[in-house]
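Side project, low priority. Logging it here so it doesn't get lost.
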Amino acid sequence: MLGIPVTYSGTYKPTGSKHRARAAPDPPPLFDDTSGGYSSQPGGYPAPGADVAFNVNHLIGDPVANMAMAYGGSIASHGKDMVHKELHRFVSVNKLKYFFAVDTAYVAKKLGLLVFPYTHQNWEVQYSRDVPLPPRQDLNAPDLYIPTMAFITYVLLAGMALGIQKRFSPEVLGLCASTALVWVVMEVLALLLGIYLATVRSDLSTFHLLAYSGYKYVGMILSILTGLLFGSDGYYVALAWTSSALMYFILQPSPLFQVRSLRTAALGPDSMGGPAPRQRLQLYLTLGAAAFQPLMIYWLTFHLVR
């Protein structure tokens, strides 16, 4: 049987040798990945399971970074100590707390004493082991709570009075508040200068002077309220009453020159006055401070009542 020759075409290729078409490569990212340890993913999100705290742990483990953090903490602590030291040089926090140690009963009684002081008999400041009792235990002790609250009330009342008269504006209200504050500061500085010149040996501090100077705000509030309710006639009646009451309060033995220190108490009660010229200077200073109060009350309130 004759075999038939089979011819193969040169173009024949086995089916299994056919190559697959390769996919087109991904386009290059618009921005380089700078996440420092994160694998780049479509959309810019970190790869699943990536350690998010990698950089933080690396920073904490770096001794140079630890040294820098410790140095920065020491600088901050040193700066805080310096601020507290400078603050205590000018303002004693413990002394300031004493002037705000009040309660409701003290505030009510002290307001009544400022408005009607004529029936009060004992004006001596009470001491316990040569330390003055706080205001809530002694009605004669000065405080800064009433002057502070009275100042805020005066500013708000001034705004209401100006609003009723259709003269309110933030600039006028700010000018009223700043003027009242500046006048009190000037009064305290003048008293400090007078005490220095009179060589008064007592434990009278700036806080005491601020307290006694700030009590005038109570009379100012009453004068403005009376003027708003009853007109100018009521204002002048209230002005006369509150001014005389405040003058009587200041001219008592206790307010300005009864505050004593341990050294003054050890020297005896007659050491406060000293020689006759010094006593006269103290008397003139007290009279000047008392006479200045009606002028201040009128100057800070007359423009609010019309």
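Brief comment: Strands lie at 127-128, 131-132.
Revisit when time allows.
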